[in-house]
């Protein structure tokens, strides 16, 4: 069945909107006397490149850069426009020292497109054609300047009119969107993190400096007060939407559903007010507070489906990478490895009740159930239950190594069409790594992969690799 669309929020995260990219074309005045009109000629070429790539991003094309002042002015305009990244195109040869200062202070992810107007050298070429197509040595000079500046950047060489080139730019643009979104991310943590869980701990200053996410601790009392302020009509609207979106368990009382709905709406309101695109709750922080009747399980599932990052147990690293998964590939899903199934060469994936139902199988209903749960010591939490959709999938775990060092551990594979587990009242599925359970788990553990992670549908390892390159963190594929 088609997956439902959650009610819109006033300030919902950007989700999977098209990347917004600036195109910076570089040349120099040297050729103006030799080829009158060359600036306009190459500006038109830059416009054709942007038009050809209109299906992968929204483009802002700067006037051709012909000197240092032009370059720095164009980059400031891109940054002021809140773009996600900058694609540099050599319109002719351009001396790198005219853009070195600009790249040294660049705040947006950069890609260097090593392209030229014509795909082939032709016997009909004259000196004008040579000049129009001489971007390669400008790319070399410019790339050298970026390397010497210590600037992470991506390089894409190819025929700019080809599908392969568009595919690589699409991958880079989505990675740029994710990196830029991380740099502005705020993660709300309700209460405190789980005691003793070491792989989720991170130096918040290091995280902020290296990747950008800022941690905002939100007192449970704020949630309790906000829940009480939610208008009754908003609660009724959410429940009515759930009636149409899910198969709702008849055992759920009106009181249970209203309390859950108030909790979901309260969490979302606080995230909007605090400017947070991701959050984490810990069952003890909610349970020990004494003012809540149940844990916000169903809330986490629908807020993930709306584009928020989420992780359990106060895990800021996992919440951040789930958010990045939304930006990079869409439908980021929080999960963990529960148990290995050696006969099927797969791992049972789940968590105690939270999951992005946008990755659910389409041949089974997504259910909202009354579900007993001893963890937290509270009343039964309404829980959204589904099985993962079979097909290609990718796992990614963000690892803090100390200091300014981070690593992303990535595994590609597939969700297999395994038999159902009728007694498992949680979102779940079985993931078969492409390298096999034994090899994948050996490498995952040796690499320090955490027990919380993001799952995305599709083969996304190369997407994550580009993100790591732009963010300046280590990439390990297992």
From TrEMBL:
Residues 203-325 form the L-arabinose isomerase central domain. GO terms for molecular function: isomerase activity. Residues 70-181 form the L-arabinose isomerase N-terminal domain. Keywords: Arabinose catabolism, Carbohydrate metabolism, Isomerase, Manganese, Metal-binding. InterPro entries: Ara_Isoase_C, AraA_central, AraA_N, AraA_N_sf, Fuc/Ara_isomerase_C, Fucose_isomerase_N/cen_sf, Lara_isomerase. Residues 332-474 form the L-arabinose isomerase C-terminal domain. Gene3D superfamilies: 3.40.50.10940. It comes from the Bacteria. It holds the Pfam family AraA_N. PANTHER family: L-ARABINOSE ISOMERASE. This is L-fucose/L-arabinose isomerase family protein.
């Amino acid at each position: 069945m088609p997956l439902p669309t959650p009610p819109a929020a006033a300030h919902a995260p950007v989700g999977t909107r098209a990347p917004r990219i600036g195109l910076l074309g570089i040349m120099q005045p040297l050729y103006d006397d030799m080829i009158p009109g060359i600036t306009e000629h190459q500006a038109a070429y830059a416009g054709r490149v942007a038009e050809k790539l209109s299906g992968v991003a929204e483009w802002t094309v700067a006037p051709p850069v012909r000197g240092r002042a032009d370059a720095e002015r164009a980059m400031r305009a891109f940054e002021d426009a809140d773009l996600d990244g900058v694609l540099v195109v050599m319109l002719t040869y351009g001396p790198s020292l005219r853009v070195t200062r600009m790249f040294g202070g660049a705040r947006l992810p950069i890609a260097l497109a090593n392209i030229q107007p014509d795909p082939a050298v032709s016997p009909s070429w004259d000196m004008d054609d040579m000049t129009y197509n001489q971007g390669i040595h400008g790319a070399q000079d410019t790339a050298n300047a970026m390397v010497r500046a210590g600037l992470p950047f991506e390089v894409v060489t190819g025929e700019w009119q080809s599908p392969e080139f568009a595919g690589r730019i699409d991958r880079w643009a989505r990675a740029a969107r994710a990196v830029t979104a991380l740099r502005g991310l705020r993660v709300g943590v309700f209460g405190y993190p789980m005691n003793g869980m070491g792989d989720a701990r991170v130096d918040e200053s290091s995280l902020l400096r290296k990747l950008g996410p800022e941690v905002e601790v939100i007192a449970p009392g704020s949630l309790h007060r906000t829940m009480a302020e939610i208008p009754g009509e908003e609660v009724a609207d959410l429940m009515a939407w759930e009636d149409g979106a899910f198969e709702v368990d008849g055992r759920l009382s009106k009181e249970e559903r209203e309390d859950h709905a108030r909790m979901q709406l309260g969490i979302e309101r606080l995230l909007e007010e605090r400017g947070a695109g991701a959050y984490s709750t810990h069952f003890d922080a909610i349970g020990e507070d004494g003012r809540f009747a149940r844990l916000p399980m169903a809330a986490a599932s629908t807020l993930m489906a709306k584009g928020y990052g989420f992780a359990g147990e106060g895990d800021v690293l996992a919440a951040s990478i789930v958010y990045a998964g939304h930006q990079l590939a869409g439908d980021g899903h929080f999960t963990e490895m529960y148990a290995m199934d050696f006969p099927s060469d797969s791992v049972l994936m789940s968590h105690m009740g939270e999951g992005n139902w946008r990755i659910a199988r389409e041949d089974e209903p997504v259910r909202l159930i009354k579900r007993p749960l001893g963890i937290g010591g509270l009343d039964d939490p309404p829980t959204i239950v589904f099985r993962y959709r079979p097909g290609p999938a990718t796992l990614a775990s963000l690892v803090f190594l100390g200091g300014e060092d981070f690593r992303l551990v990535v595994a590609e594979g597939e969700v297999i069409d395994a038999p159902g587990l009728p007694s498992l009242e949680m979102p779940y599925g079985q993931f078969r790594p492409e390298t096999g359970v034994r090899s994948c788990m050996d490498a995952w553990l040796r690499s320090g992969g955490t027990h919380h992670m993001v799952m995305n549908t599709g083969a996304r390892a190369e997407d994550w690799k580009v993100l790591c390159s732009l963010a300046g963190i280590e990439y390990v594929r297992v």
